[in-house]
Amino acid sequence: MSIDSPDELAALRATGRVVAEAIREMARRVRPGVSTGELDDVAAQVFKRHGARSGPQLDYDFPGVTCLSVDDEAVHGIPGPRRLREGQLIKLDVTAELDGFYADACRTVPVGRVRPREQRLMAASQSALKRGLEAAKAGVNVGVVGKAVNDEVTRRGFNVIEELAGHGIGRKIHEEPDVPNIDWDGPTLTDGLVITIEPIIAAGDGEVYMHDDGWTVKTYDGSSCAHFEHTLVVTEGAPILVTA
Ligand code: MF3
Ligand code: CO
Ligand code: CO
């Protein structure tokens, strides 16, 4: 969607605050021994308190409130009884709907102490998101954002997962345009446009496949993944971060 009134912006920001709170509350509870289902319940409680609903459930009948992906799982991991272990990386990818407005964000959190390579992987995704946010301005081709993200990831020795991209958002989870993490000739960003930027990156070559559960996307080579995401409103200057 494109924002064209202060009321719309306020409503979108309200959803963004719920998403940020859910991620914060889940992140506080990440430790060896906690199950992904328990973390999902934390998000469910935050949503309930604010009258928000799960975007993945509403739009796709996803079998969870949030998408919780561990290690070589890139995206759309299903919450369940599986318990986290020291050294793992968990991606807390949360999309909420409140009063018809959607916001989407993700943070990668280490489980206890993780290896230096995993730390560098997380830092690369986070830094690439920052570069993408700096590049996202009205009048700029969306491919410029992808190039900024991709350059930062490869500079740090990792690879983006090319088939997983950011997207327009607002009245549904996935709207136009696609926001891939690569250089391409796409549409031009416009003032007020609401998008996500989300570098989903792997320590290996970034090739992925769909797991038997029909949801979880995993790396072929078993390498770890990191993922940070924000929802933002494009402006002539610095974007408005909705999920910070
Ligand atoms: N949060 C995901 C994204 O960033 C969307 C998940 S919807 C699902 O695009 F149903 F596929 F899980
Ligand atoms: Co997301
Ligand atoms: Co997204």
TrEMBL record:
<feature type="binding site">
    <location>
        <position position="229"/>
    </location>
    <ligand>
        <name>a divalent metal cation 2</name>
    </ligand>
</feature>
<dbReference type="InterPro" id="IPR002467">
    <property type="entry name" value="Pept_M24A_MAP1"/>
</dbReference>
<dbReference type="GO" id="GO:0046872">
    <property type="term" value="F:metal ion binding"/>
</dbReference>
<dbReference type="GO" id="GO:0004239">
    <property type="term" value="F:initiator methionyl aminopeptidase activity"/>
</dbReference>
<dbReference type="InterPro" id="IPR001714">
    <property type="entry name" value="Pept_M24_MAP"/>
</dbReference>
<feature type="binding site">
    <location>
        <position position="104"/>
    </location>
    <ligand>
        <name>a divalent metal cation 1</name>
    </ligand>
</feature>
<feature type="binding site">
    <location>
        <position position="198"/>
    </location>
    <ligand>
        <name>a divalent metal cation 2</name>
    </ligand>
</feature>
<keyword id="KW-0479">Metal-binding</keyword>
<dbReference type="InterPro" id="IPR036005">
    <property type="entry name" value="Creatinase/aminopeptidase-like"/>
</dbReference>
<dbReference type="GO" id="GO:0006508">
    <property type="term" value="P:proteolysis"/>
</dbReference>
<feature type="binding site">
    <location>
        <position position="76"/>
    </location>
    <ligand>
        <name>substrate</name>
    </ligand>
</feature>
<feature type="domain" description="Peptidase M24">
    <location>
        <begin position="11"/>
        <end position="236"/>
    </location>
</feature>
<feature type="binding site">
    <location>
        <position position="167"/>
    </location>
    <ligand>
        <name>a divalent metal cation 2</name>
    </ligand>
</feature>
<keyword id="KW-0378">Hydrolase</keyword>
<dbReference type="InterPro" id="IPR000994">
    <property type="entry name" value="Pept_M24"/>
</dbReference>
<comment type="subunit">
    <text>Monomer.</text>
</comment>
<comment type="function">
    <text>Removes the N-terminal methionine from nascent proteins. The N-terminal methionine is often cleaved when the second residue in the primary sequence is small and uncharged (Met-Ala-, Cys, Gly, Pro, Ser, Thr, or Val). Requires deformylation of the N(alpha)-formylated initiator methionine before it can be hydrolyzed.</text>
</comment>
<feature type="binding site">
    <location>
        <position position="229"/>
    </location>
    <ligand>
        <name>a divalent metal cation 1</name>
    </ligand>
</feature>
<dbReference type="GO" id="GO:0070006">
    <property type="term" value="F:metalloaminopeptidase activity"/>
</dbReference>
<keyword id="KW-0645">Protease</keyword>
<comment type="similarity">
    <text>Belongs to the peptidase M24A family. Methionine aminopeptidase type 1 subfamily.</text>
</comment>
<feature type="binding site">
    <location>
        <position position="104"/>
    </location>
    <ligand>
        <name>a divalent metal cation 2</name>
    </ligand>
</feature>
<keyword id="KW-0031">Aminopeptidase</keyword>
<feature type="binding site">
    <location>
        <position position="93"/>
    </location>
    <ligand>
        <name>a divalent metal cation 1</name>
    </ligand>
</feature>
<feature type="binding site">
    <location>
        <position position="174"/>
    </location>
    <ligand>
        <name>substrate</name>
    </ligand>
</feature>
<protein>
    <recommendedName>
        <fullName>Methionine aminopeptidase</fullName>
        <ecNumber>3.4.11.18</ecNumber>
    </recommendedName>
</protein>
<dbReference type="Pfam" id="PF00557">
    <property type="entry name" value="Peptidase_M24"/>
</dbReference>
